[in-house]
Structure formats: structure tokens, C-alpha cells
UniProtKB/TrEMBL annotation:
Keyword Acetylation in record: no
One Pfam entry name: HTH_18
Superkingdom field: Bacteria
Protein name: AraC family transcriptional regulator
UniProt KW Cell cycle keyword: no
Residue ranges of coiled coil: none
Domain spans labelled HTH araC/xylS-type: 14-112
InterPro entries according to UniProt: AraC_E-bd, GyrI-like, Homeodomain-like_sf, HTH_AraC, Reg_factor_effector_dom_sf, SmbC-like
GO molecular function: DNA-binding transcription factor activity; sequence-specific DNA binding
Keywords: Transcription, Transcription regulation
Length: 298
């Protein structure tokens, strides 16, 4: 791991963590927090989740609940006041979230010691009443053993159909693409099948998620109606192999971008990230699917 790059990631993430700690009573949008870290919202969300083990929304919600627990223990707040301070509209919804996290309702929690929080959730960032925190350190976390290679990827000309909606509903885009490409003889044995997942489903509303179903084509092929032409690749990429169902891809993205990337000495590039499908989902059991994930590097 290159120390300078590691420190670069930690400094940027600590800036976000300190901002969250200092502004728990404020609305904190993803765009604002990503800007503090100098990442795009999608990259920030995945890097944060990989580093912290939770999404930024879950992190803020948990820190607010920890503050509420401290105020209850210290007698500073009633359950009603703690609920509103934690951002819940009703005491009932606050109580449900509180019990799920701490194992008992707020009314019973006063009997427990504050340090039980740290025993229950070891190794992660917690709310500190004095406002101080220990800096985030990657060496406190197990280094990822993910197998990643870096390679120069040739630019690929692809025909594509865009799907707007959840990633698990992109089958229609593939059907349209194959129905168009098949009669033209474009589904050759040497054709490569790619997916460009533009958005993070934990950030973008389901109906706004963009996914391009792509097949490589030569320079003689032109677009036609819903069929577009674009270039994918061209530059340095980090590549890791995802084994298993497509619905688990996001977990691999989070480990690659929030685990491997900060340890690697590499930085995110500006080219499109994409997925290369190595076997046919129509004839392959989900557990045996193989997908190479390509992340652009500077």
C-alpha cells in the first residue's frame, strides 16, 4: 500500500466524518458530503461503504441514535425529545429503530451503561459527546484479500440499448439489443457482452437508474432508433472477478472501491466503469455466473 495515497483517502474521509459529527442536527445531502471528499456521489457512496462497513445514510442514522442513547442515559432528554433530535417524526418509529439497534426500548435503556454501545459495535466510528474522534485508520481494518489486476483496456465500440429502472429489470434492454443484432449477424463468437451501470442503486431513485446493455461491433455498424453507439474502455482499469448472482455485484463494487482502492495507491479515473459478462446467464446457474468488473484508474 502506498502511504501517500492511503493518507489521501483517509484525510478526505475524515473530513466527511468530522463534518457529520459537527452537523448532526442539519440535513446532509449526498452531493454535499461527496463534495467534501472530492469524489463523485456514486464513487463516494461506494468508497464510504467499503471503508466504513455501512452506507453514509446508515452511518448518520446510527450516530444520531447513539447521541440519543447518551442523552437518555445522562437524563438530558426524554424519549420524545430524543426522537425528534434523532430526526424521527414519531416516538413510535424512534422506539422501533432504537430497540432494533440496542436490543431494548428507550425506556429501559437508562439502566444500561453507555459503553455497551462500543461492545455491541466494535471497530467502527461512534458518536463522541465531546466532539472529538480518533482519526480513521485503515490499518485498524483487515486488508482486503480481493484479487485485482490492473490492465490497459483498448477502446471498444459497442451498440447498446439503455434501460431506465432497477438493474434487475434490464432484461428487456438485452432482448431488444439481441433481437436487433442477431439478424445482422453481430452476435458472433468473438463478440463481447458488456453492461455499463451508470448509477448506484442506493443513491439513485429506482426509476432513474441508467444501465446500458452493450455488444461490441465494428466501425461499419451504425445506430438505429433505440440502438445507440458509444465507446467503452480506453485506458487503465482495475479488474476483479465477481462470482455469483448479479444481485450481489454491489457488494463486490463496495469491496473493490472501498477496500482495495484505498490500499492500492491508485485513484479513480474518469472513464466509464463497466461489467464484462463471461458466461451466458440464460444457460448458467446464478451461482456460477462470472463477471469481470472494470473500474477506471488515473
Amino acid at each position: 500500500m502506498k502511504a501517500t495515497t492511503r493518507n489521501h483517502y483517509l484525510e478526505r474521509m475524515n473530513t466527511v466524518l468530522l463534518h457529520i459529527q459537527a452537523h448532526l442536527d442539519d440535513e446532509m445531502g449526498l452531493e454535499e458530503l461527496a463534495g467534501l471528499a472530492c469524489f463523485s456521489p456514486t464513487h463516494f457512496h461506494r468508497i464510504f461503504k467499503g471503508l466504513m462497513g455501512e452506507t453514509v445514510v446508515d452511518h448518520i442514522r446510527r450516530i444520531r441514535l447513539e447521541r440519543a442513547a447518551l442523552r437518555l442515559v445522562s437524563g438530558r432528554d426524554t424519549a420524545t425529545a430524543a426522537a425528534f433530535d434523532a430526526g424521527y417524526e414519531t416516538v413510535e418509529s424512534f422506539s422501533r429503530a432504537f430497540k432494533k439497534m440496542f436490543g431494548c426500548p428507550p425506556s429501559k435503556y437508562r439502566e444500561r451503561h453507555w459503553e455497551a454501545i462500543y461492545d455491541r459495535f466494535p471497530g467502527i466510528i461512534h458518536y463522541r459527546p465531546e466532539g472529538a474522534r480518533t482519526g480513521l485508520r485503515l490499518d485498524n481494518r483487515k486488508e482486503t484479500d480481493m484479487e485485482v489486476r490492473t490492465e490497459n483496456v483498448e477502446a471498444m465500440r459497442v451498440a447498446f440499448v439503455r434501460n431506465m429502472g432497477p438493474y434487475n429489470q434490464c432484461g428487456a434492454a438485452w432482448s431488444k439489443l439481441c433481437a436487433w443484432a442477431g439478424p445482422k449477424g453481430l452476435l458472433r463468437p468473438d463478440a463481447r457482452y458488456l453492461g455499463v451501470a451508470h448509477d448506484d442503486p442506493q443513491i439513485t431513485p429506482p426509476d432513474k437508474i441508467r444501465y446500458d446493455a452493450c455488444v461490441t461491433v465494428d466501425d461499419s455498424v451504425e445506430g438505429d432508433g433505440e440502438i445507440g453507439i458509444q465507446t467503452v474502455g480506453g485506458g487503465r482499469y482495475a479488474v476483479t472477478l465477481h462470482k455469483g448472482p448479479f444481485e450481489n455485484l454491489e457488494t463486490t463494487y463496495a469491496e473493490l472501491m472501498g477496500g482495495w482502492l484505498p490500499q492500492s495507491g491508485e485513484r479513480i479515473g474518469n472513464n466509464l466503469c463497466f461489467e464484462l459478462y463471461l458466461n451466458d446467464p440464460q444457460s448458467t446457474p446464478p451461482a456460477e455466473l462470472l463477471t469481470d468488473i472494470y473500474i477506471s484508474l488515473k
